[in-house]
Amino acid sequence: QVQVVESGGGLVQPGGSLRLSCQASGFTLDTDTIAWFRQAPGKEREGVSCISGTDDSPYYEDSVKGRFTIARDVGKRTVYLQMHDLKPEDTAIYYCALDSTVPWSMCPLGPGLESEYDYWGQGTQVTVSS
Predict the structure, then answer these.
(1) Comparing C-alpha atoms, which of 7, 9, 2, 8 is closest to residue 24?
(2) Which of 98, 128, 126 is nearest to 19 (CA)?
(3) What are phi and psi of 71, to 5 degrees?
(4) pLDDT digit string (tens) for 70-110?
């Protein structure tokens, strides 16, 4: 059974940083397309960032561009989401999602594209508050 596990969430003050990690049992994550989604209370889940399985091209939702960075560490079989300059509006549960079947050159991140991902983690809470 595939298990996707996120870690690294927590409580941070505005302007602070966090690094989320994603690992998946049974996958090395070296050629899989990985995405981070988030869901804030009372809001729909939205795509935050993804990394292509073909060439590691990263993509970001507009509100996090310049603040978040997605990266793959093949040796550690881990995909990270480094988050800087966090804002209260970044508060949400962050989910890692994996697609191991489609060799996306431009990973899917927009509304309605969650179904493209085969496996999901349980999420990790990120709270940005003073």
Answers:
(1) 2
(2) 126
(3) -150, 155
(4) 999 989 999 999 999 999 999 999 999 999 888 888 899 98
